[in-house]
Amino acid sequence: MTTQDWSEEIVMVNLAEDPELSDELNALAERMEKDSKDVVLDFANIKFLNSSNISRLLRLRKIVLDNKGHLCLCNIAIQVWGVFLLTGLDSIFDVAEDTATALTSLQMKS
Predict the structure, then answer these.
(1) d(C-alpha 45, C-alpha 102), whole Å
(2) In CATH, what number is assigned to the domain containing residue 45?
(3) Among 59, 60, 65, 81, which is least packed, fewest CB within 10 Å?
(4) 69-91, pLDDT tens digit by residue?
(5) Can you give the pTM of this predicted structure?
(6) SS3 44
(7) Which domain holds residue 26?
(8) Across the strands, what pairs with 95?
């Protein structure tokens, strides 16, 4: 996982494929429990999403929202987007087509 403080308010995270993905989401959730920032998750490297990772994403979302932040996902591959559609996650998460759009979206909400 590459984590970058894009600004004082936004953390940009380039996620890695499993098995690192699970650990990355857990580490990010722990960080966000102490840090109230907006988060952009870049899914460009993710080709598969399992139920365990979905659970971790939902936990991260709850933590970020509880801290009055926003979470935006971007660069989601078609096969991963299918998982979002089938599970209804597309209506729960804010999703942007690319990183620039995600960052712009968060800046407009702040």
Answers:
(1) 16
(2) 3.30.750.24
(3) 65
(4) 999 999 999 999 999 999 999 99
(5) 0.92
(6) coil
(7) 2-109
(8) 73
